[in-house]
Amino acid sequence: MSLAGLSLWLVPNAAQLQLIQKVLPKQPETRPVSAASYPEITPHITLASSRKATQDALLRAVPSTLHPIPVEFQKLEVGDHYFRSVFISVKKTTELVALHEYIMAALDRDGASPSAPAFLHVSISYIADEDGVAERKKAADELRATTVVEGPETGLDDAESVVLRCGDSEEGRVCLTGFEGTEVWIVRCEGPVQHWQVLHKITATPGVAQD
């Protein structure tokens, strides 16, 4: 399974990125799966994708002043598409929607025909269609057994919430209820996932208002 074109990703800060990547599922050793399943991925929210856009068009589409965007996890879900095999849906906040709409409108003006399928999700695993729904459900169940805490068990006030257990540190157990989106990456998504290229990174400036 492969994509073609350029995408804009909202990516966690470096420390959170490392924590999330550490707990993403790896290829299972106890059962055979397709070589295309469980590639190493960078946790992100796709803000927009385009087959037509140039790198310059994507750069123009990002607000000139970009501030960190708080992201809150909502629910662990199993999808019916390779790039949404197992994912965490994300709460629709004013900041996220405003950034997405700003970028989509700018790319539209450039004639780039942008898209953002199932906007507001963070993919956890890409699993090939030949491995089927059963493998995707198994991956989600294994996450629930080891890494993901959902709903009332999180101890949070919101019934629709997810916590990722990301291991232990000197201060105790490390858990994430979301992340701080501090960079927007321009990524060339062509060919297999391992061949995707990060072309440019735009770093948010703390404490500034969105354009």
Instruction: Please state the average pLDDT score.
Output: 90
Helix and strand run: EHEHEEHEHEEEEE
> Which word captures the global form?
globular
What is the total tally of β strands? 10
Strand content: 25-35%
Oligomer: single chain
Helical segment count: 4
Percentage of helical residues? 10-25%
Gyration radius, to the nearest Å?
A: 17 Å
Write structural notes for this entry:
With 211 residues, the chain is an alpha+beta fold. It is built from four helices and ten strands; from the N terminus they run βαβαββαβαβββββ. The protein has helices at residues 14-23, 55-61, 94-109, 132-146; strands spanning 6-12, 45-50, 69-78, 86-90, 121-125, 148-150, 162-169, 172-176, 178-188, 197-203. Strands 1, 2, 3, 4, 5, 9 and 10 form a seven-stranded antiparallel sheet that branches. A three-stranded antiparallel sheet has the order 6-7-8. Strand 9 and strand 10 (197-203) form a beta hairpin. Helix 2 (55-61) packs across helix 3. The longest helix has 16 residues, at 94-109. It is globular. The model has no long low-confidence stretch (mean pLDDT 90).
Label this structure with key terms.
211 residues; alpha+beta; 4 helices; 32% strand
Topology:
Elements: E1 6-12, H1 14-23, E2 45-50, H2 55-61, E3 69-78, E4 86-90, H3 94-109, E5 121-125, H4 132-146, E6 148-150, E7 162-169, E8 172-176, E9 178-188, E10 197-203
Antiparallel strand pairs: 1-2, 1-9, 3-4, 3-9, 4-5, 6-7, 7-8, 9-10
Helix pairs in contact: 2-3
